[in-house]
Amino acid sequence: MESNTGVDYARVRPMLELARSFVEPMTDQIKYLVTGGLTEAQSIDADGENNEDVVVRGIGSNPIQEMRLEKGIPPTYPLQWFAANKWNKPPITLPGPRAGANLNDYYHIITNTYRRESVSVTSSLTFLQLLCRQITGLLRFDWVSLGVLIDYKDSMINPLDVFTVRITEINTNIGSSQEDVSDDMLYDLALLILGGFRIHMASNQTYIDRLQTALKAQLINPDFSDGVEVAITNFAQLYSDPEFVKLACGMDMFFAVFPQHNRAKLRFGTLIMAHKDCTGLSAITAGCELMHHTTRVFSRWLMTPVLRSDMNRMTIPGQEICIPYSYSPYLSGLGIVDKSPYSAALNCGLHMFTHMIGCAVPMARSVNAIYFQPSGLQAIIDNAILFIYAHSCTGSLQMQFFRASEVRTVKKVEEESRHYMEEMRKRLQDFKNEEGQRTGSGDEEEDVSRPSTPESSPSEGGGGDLEDLESVSELGGVVEGEPTSRDALDWYMYISRYYHGSLPARMRDVAFDRWSKLTDVRPNTVGEFVKRMSKNVQP
């Protein structure tokens, strides 16, 4: 860092202190998460709440003790790592060049071997670290991440500046070459190495074929274009090296700050490192996209303890997980967490909830999302069905353009609609008071105290199911008391009042009908799960 005055530090100090101020509240919140096999109820009990002994009938019986089963490594958060490591940058250890050797020499040693045999990890890392020192950019702002100062505004930086770099000495004589190599050829080799890494990390063959075609189209050197497949094989040892993975993260962080950099094409191979092992976050972002609302609005639709725990786990404040040029999106590759708290496997309840909804649209990424079985799956299915029904049988349209003469009419219609919803909400909120005022005895009392369903009739044997959904949603029929809004509270109060929190069959029919129409579902996906489930309940 080139600044020799206290002025720059005084400018960034509030940002550093703000990030570090999250440590204590973060620690408190983590105690209440479902982690390491410790349930939320057990966490509360451990803090002395609701801890009255449960005893066994009989003389001398011992009270029931809480069991805590440790299941693997609990997840950790990026901010925890930096706090524990005294707010230092993540370390990286890279080999240095042999005395007198330069980029040209390492370019030739790699290009002379990559088609014939496995390429030396040391030579490849040396080439990339020398190349990174040539990739520079002028910072437009003070770059601070998770309480760490990366560098000041107006500093000239390169991808290695996000690390605490340790260079090891290499004494191997690699030989030297007198032939100069253009910068374009140097970066073309880097693109081959990094692009091969992205392809190496892919698993779906169709996707691999697309990536190979895209990489070949971007490579300048015809020899590199023809050798993509063999390069992926012969760089395999490099791709599994943790220091290379860190370097790929650092390069992607750099290009996140400088997206218009003239060498940003290299990001073709590094962008997979951003949010690696964070696919659980897509459950939140996809849910918000489906609703066209904020995370706060989306969270109001989560009505089971498992979904609440998943949301709490992924929204611990101060982690900067949504800032593209923060360390947090690279938590896995940088090794700053032992286990990602943002993975789909750990947050499989929210993952299933969002993608079951996405399958009703249908969205391809939801249909093809990997299937997990969270605890409380049936409740999560019901929650998803309620969401699907509420958004299928209500409208979200609002006139955006109208004649000047129609302004008063439009305002009147919208005002009447608001008054209707306010009255409906008031009736639902007052329901408990109405229940308390009811009187009666015997069978009559039982009949009176049971809340009537809006569609109940003598011919129906249960919770007010409609056999003909079209009469409700398509032909303009209205179920008495059913909300016309898409507000989570309105629908929660509705099912609580009329169905004691369960769902009528007509709501399930909407979701099952949509899910049953999915085609070409892949094995072990959410799409396969909901399609199979909908077939099992079809009459």
TrEMBL record:
<dbReference type="GO" id="GO:1990904">
    <property type="term" value="C:ribonucleoprotein complex"/>
</dbReference>
<dbReference type="Pfam" id="PF00945">
    <property type="entry name" value="Rhabdo_ncap"/>
</dbReference>
<dbReference type="InterPro" id="IPR035961">
    <property type="entry name" value="Rhabdovirus_nucleoprotein-like"/>
</dbReference>
<feature type="region of interest" description="Disordered">
    <location>
        <begin position="427"/>
        <end position="469"/>
    </location>
</feature>
<feature type="compositionally biased region" description="Basic and acidic residues">
    <location>
        <begin position="427"/>
        <end position="437"/>
    </location>
</feature>
<keyword id="KW-0694">RNA-binding</keyword>
<keyword id="KW-1035">Host cytoplasm</keyword>
<protein>
    <recommendedName>
        <fullName>Rhabdovirus nucleocapsid domain-containing protein</fullName>
    </recommendedName>
</protein>
<keyword id="KW-0687">Ribonucleoprotein</keyword>
<dbReference type="InterPro" id="IPR023330">
    <property type="entry name" value="Rhabdovirus_ncapsid_N"/>
</dbReference>
<feature type="domain" description="Rhabdovirus nucleocapsid">
    <location>
        <begin position="72"/>
        <end position="419"/>
    </location>
</feature>
<dbReference type="GO" id="GO:0003723">
    <property type="term" value="F:RNA binding"/>
</dbReference>
<dbReference type="InterPro" id="IPR023331">
    <property type="entry name" value="Rhabdovirus_ncapsid_C"/>
</dbReference>
<dbReference type="GO" id="GO:0030430">
    <property type="term" value="C:host cell cytoplasm"/>
</dbReference>
<dbReference type="InterPro" id="IPR000448">
    <property type="entry name" value="Rhabdo_ncapsid"/>
</dbReference>
